[in-house]
Sequence to fold (244 residues):
Amino acid sequence: MDCKKGLSAYQLKVIAIVAMTIDHIAWMWVPTASLLGQVMHIIGRITAPVMCYLLVEGYTHTHDIRGYTVRLGIFAVVSALPFYIFERCAGMAVGGVPSFGMIYTLFLSLLVLRVYDSRAIVGIKKSVVIFILFLLSFMGDWAGIAVAWTFVLYVYREDRRAQLRLLSYTAVLSASLLALDGALGNMNCPYIGLFQFGMVLAIPVIGAYNGSLGGKKSAKWFFYVYYPAHMLVLAVLKLVINSL
Fold:
């Protein structure tokens, strides 16, 4: 039994999916401009930084990087349609441009780390490939931001304080830009994007990580399956409720 103080990787995953579920429920049913909507989305902002951190931990400690990559790639494909359906049921789609979801973005982030460490891809080719992967991430959830977080967290993986400090800076900067974009896009409710600053709440959560795995190895499949499954469930519930 693991008695280390702090949070295990398993507990971080649980926190991430609970926060994500609260966020997705809010997108589906709660007006963003309402107090409840803002609070729920503030909680939801915890998810992405924690998932990026766990990706770095997974990449750093896995004994089967090919298997890890294939597994993430498969679930990126599996999750694309559920995310598409969820976005449209929640009224989040913009301009009809499809988005492939967060696992797609994490998959590209993993590829960035692999290219960064690759001895086969060197010099300017390395920079070009990483830049292309970064651009491709704009077809996913947390476009660009998640890739940048993952890269920074990996580069400073040996220095927890530096990781948290840089994550704090980038979280505040990202939240500021997104909040400004929300204000400019909705002049009648300029505070609508303030929930983005909830990203900062991920810092103490990640800071509490104790380096242990926790949970059972089989639990990893639950987290992969939960992502597309819960979005389909929420979408079906929305359709059923609307039909009553």
Summary: The CA atoms of residues 49 and 103 lie 13 Å apart.
